[in-house]
Amino acid sequence: MGKIIAVVTARREEVTGGGAPVFAAGSPEAAERLALELEKVLDCAASRIGDHHFVLVERTPPVR
Prior knowledge:
Elements: E1 4-9, E2 22-24, H1 28-42, E3 44-49, E4 53-58
């Protein structure tokens, strides 16, 4: 299981707790753009959670 690196949301009031940084965007479209940019910069995987939230998860290397 990968480690959560960050959360990106268009609805900050719905995201509480945790320990990962939370990035707030002004709209769902802006949240998607931000999540995709962070995915590249942080070399992680971005997954949509509902209509307004993305979770960025550390990529795990393949097991050999």
